[in-house]
Amino acid sequence: MLDQILPGGVFSLALVFARIGAMVMVLPVFGEMYVSSRIRLILALFLTVLIAPQAGALPALPVQAALLVPLIGGEVLLGLAIGGIARMVMVALHVAGSIIAVQSGLAVAQNVDPTQGTQSVVPANFVIMTGTTVIVLADLHHLLIGAVAESYRLFPATAPLAVGDLATLATGVVADTFTLGLQMAAPFLAFGIVFNVLLG
């Protein structure tokens, strides 16, 4: 009896872990470069154990091993899509910081961006680190964890992956990201235009 129940239970946990693990790896705050991969893995395993009983109906263990690929691959793709859309907030902060750097003349001063592991302008790093701090202080990271659990209500594991809807949503979010970054840097843009006009 146990050899019939255990594989199904392990498969259910693996299916839940595929989505949650992918989301945790790219979510803001949790998926930053300075957060150790081991910590992210432990957090993903912990959330998997907590969320798996509330994940609703899960697909049954397929008979053929080849059928595991679309099931697990779809969950990973969905997790990356949800986490990536949430990460667009940090991209908006980076856009705003880069515009501020250009307008303030600090675009030459660069430093290591701890969130991306690359060189970036100092104002962008400051804005991103401030945004990350605000997310943690305002307990908004709890909303991110809640979104991980809520994803099983909006996107059941037994439903087909809505690739078209996700692509449309991602396109709109990317456009809104640059709009938001431009709006946050609007005072610096206005100051730069007025300053250059008066200087001319």
Automatic annotation (TrEMBL):
Protein's cellular compartments: Cell membrane
Keywords, alphabetical: Cell membrane, Cell projection, Cilium, Flagellum, Membrane, Transmembrane, Transmembrane helix
Domain of life from the UniProt record: Bacteria
GO annotation (BP), single: protein targeting
Protein name stated in the entry: Flagellar type III secretion system protein FliR
Recorded GO CC terms: plasma membrane
Ranges that cross the membrane: 6-27, 39-57, 63-82, 89-109, 121-140, 152-174, 180-199
Membrane topology: Multi-pass membrane protein
Family: Belongs to the FliR/MopE/SpaR family.
